[in-house]
């Protein structure tokens, strides 16, 4: 018997009490069969939305147009959806119309992949697996329900879901599904939906097979053509991969945090534009600056938040930083002041992955950047001032002590004081900074 939370069981039980069918379907059953804890629970029933609302008075009719009612059971919100038949998808995103049914087979038949088309009746403790999804789970195969081309024509996002499940489940896509991918169809999918699938893919544990599928299928060229421009571009003797595959491996080696994975994927996106050759070899001068500009355009196009755009753009812009474990304390303090403490750690993580992706030498790279992190830790732990706000004096102090009027000069003096404190942290006390400020004003 599958372990079903009490709140979910009660929803199904109540529908049964009113003589309706009730099955748990989709990702919840897939995850439960894989011994994973499901994140979302979906119930399908032959009760119409009106009947569901009558049985559960506190329900929320958010997706009623498509047959979905959100039911609150205990502390859990459950999507309860009326069984539906296949319909035409003229926009390749959503059905033109919704036709309800009481036939479970017809409902499961319209789903994307066999592993998501398994139903479970918790009251009867019965698994209904018409399309052999459990067999595909055991074989770790992602296969469409029925004809792959038909499924992708109905909803083009399913092509990206195929790629995403390759990463998140660590499964192999069935060859018929891969063959049916038509990159042209992705133009029918909203950028927000593309972004959502890309995000889920990028934070998975093993993303290389999915990224290669994304490229080989032609989907990546439709979504981020700037990235695929790196395919086939040699980087010289220090690299074993071209620009594109190096970017894939950098993303694999970095921590699975979205902003880091995005920055790793895009960190060399400026190289195809900046490539040059001379007698000393191949060069990509200022590729980080060009890459930062391109990254911002890409992220904006894919509807990422301004916060993510700024985070990723900064990391791409600064990923060629020049500090190392033997840099002076002064140099490291200035690096931290320039990018911020959190971003400094992110940049070291990104550089570590970048170098690992050059030669696949994790051990020596790991040791080198652990020593870099140790230096960063020790300097940050000393609680130096890295910003004007962390100085021992404020603008108000300057106005009062130096008889100054409010204006741009105050900010200029504070910045000069910070510049001196970064060189010599012991200067960061009230009396010393006031004395320096008075001298700056006099001079």
Please outline what is shown here.
Helices cover 52% and strands 9% of the residues.
Indicate the CATH topology of the largest domain. Hypothetical protein af1432
User: How many helical stretches?
Assistant: 23
Low-confidence segments, given as residue ranges, are none
CATH architecture of the largest domain: Orthogonal Bundle
Shape from CA axes? Answer: elongated
DSSP strand (E) fraction?
A: 5-15%
How do the strands of the widest beta sheet line up side by side? Answer: 3-4-5-2-1-6-7
Mean pLDDT: 94
Percentage of helical residues? 40-55%
Q: What gyration radius follows from the Cα positions, in whole Å?
A: 28 Å
Largest sheet: 7 strands, mixed
Number of domains: 4
Described by its quaternary structure, the protein is single chain
Total strands: the figure is 11
Amino-to-carboxy terminus distance: 83 Å
CATH class of the largest domain: Mainly Alpha
Classification by helices and strands: alpha+beta
What characteristics describe this protein?
443 residues; alpha+beta; Beta Polymerase, domain 2; Hydrophobic Seed Protein; Hypothetical protein af1432; 4 domains; seven-stranded mixed beta sheet; 23 helices
What does this protein look like?
The protein has about 450 residues and is of the alpha+beta class. The protein has four domains: about 5-140, Beta Polymerase, domain 2 (2-Layer Sandwich); about 145-225, Hydrophobic Seed Protein (Orthogonal Bundle); about 235-380, Orthogonal Bundle (Hypothetical protein af1432); about 390-440. It has 23 helices and eleven strands. It has helices at about 5-15, 25-35, 50-55, 105-110, 135-140, 150-155, 155-170, 175-180, 190-200, 210-215, 220-225, 225-230, 245-255, 260-265, 270-275, 285-300, 305-320, 330-340, 340-360, 360-380, 395-400, 410-425, 430-440, and strands at about 20-25, 40-45, 60-65, 70-75, 75-80, 120, 125-130, 140, 170-175, 275-280, 280-285. The chain has a seven-stranded mixed sheet with strand order 3-4-5-2-1-6-7. A hairpin with a 2-residue loop joins strand 10 and strand 11. Helix 16 runs antiparallel to helix 17 (about 305-320). The longest helix has 20 residues, at about 360-380. The protein is elongated and about 90 Å long.
């Amino acid at each position: 018997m599958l372990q079903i939370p009490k709140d979910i069981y009660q929803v199904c039980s109540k529908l049964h009490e009113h003589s309706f069918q009730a099955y748990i379907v989709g990702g919840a059953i897939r995850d439960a069969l894989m011994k994973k804890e499901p994140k979302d629970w979906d119930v399908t029933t032959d009760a119409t939305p009106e009947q569901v609302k009558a049985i559960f008075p506190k329900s929320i009719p958010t997706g009623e147009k498509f047959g979905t009612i959100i039911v609150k059971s205990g502390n859990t919100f459950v999507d309860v959806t009326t069984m539906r038949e296949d319909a035409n998808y003229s926009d390749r995103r959503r059905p033109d119309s919704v036709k309800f049914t009481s036939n479970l087979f017809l409902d499961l038949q319209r789903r994307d992949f066999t592993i998501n088309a398994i139903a479970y009746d918790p009251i009867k403790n019965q698994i209904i697996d018409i399309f052999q999804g459990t067999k595909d789970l055991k074989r770790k195969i992602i296969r469409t329900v029925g004809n792959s081309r038909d499924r992708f024509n109905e909803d083009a996002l399913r092509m990206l879901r195929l790629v995403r499940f390759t990463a998140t489940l660590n499964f192999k896509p069935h060859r018929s599904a891969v063959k049916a991918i038509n990159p042209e169809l992705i133009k029918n999918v909203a950028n927000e939906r593309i972004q959502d699938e890309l995000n889920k893919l990028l934070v998975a544990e093993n993303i290389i097979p999915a990224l290669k599928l994304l490229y080989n299928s032609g989907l990546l060229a439709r979504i981020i053509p700037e990235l695929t421009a790196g395919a086939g571009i040699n980087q010289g003797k220090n690299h074993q991969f071209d620009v594109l595959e190096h970017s894939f491996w950098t993303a694999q080696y970095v921590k699975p945090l979205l902003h880091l994975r995005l920055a790793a994927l895009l960190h060399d996106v400026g190289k195809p534009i900046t490539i040059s050759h001379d007698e000393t070899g191949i060069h990509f001068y200022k590729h980080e600056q060009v890459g930062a500009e391109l990254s911002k355009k890409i992220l904006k196009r894919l509807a990422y938040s301004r916060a993510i755009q700024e985070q990723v753009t900064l990391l791409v812009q600064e990923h060629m930083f020049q500090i190392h474990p033997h840099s002076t304390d002064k140099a490291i303090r200035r690096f931290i002041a320039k990018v911020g403490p959190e971003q400094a750690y992110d940049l070291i993580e990104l550089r570590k992955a970048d170098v690992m992706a050059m030669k696949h030498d994790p051990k020596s790279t790991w040791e080198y950047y652990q020593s870099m992190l140790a230096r960063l830790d020790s300097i940050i732990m000393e609680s130096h001032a890295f910003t004007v706000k962390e100085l021992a004096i404020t603008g108000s102090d300057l106005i009062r002590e130096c008889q100054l009027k409010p204006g741009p000069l105050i900010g200029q003096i504070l910045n000069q004081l910070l510049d001196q404190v970064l060189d010599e942290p012991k200067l960061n006390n009230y009396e010393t900074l006031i004395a320096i400020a008075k001298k700056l004003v006099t001079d």
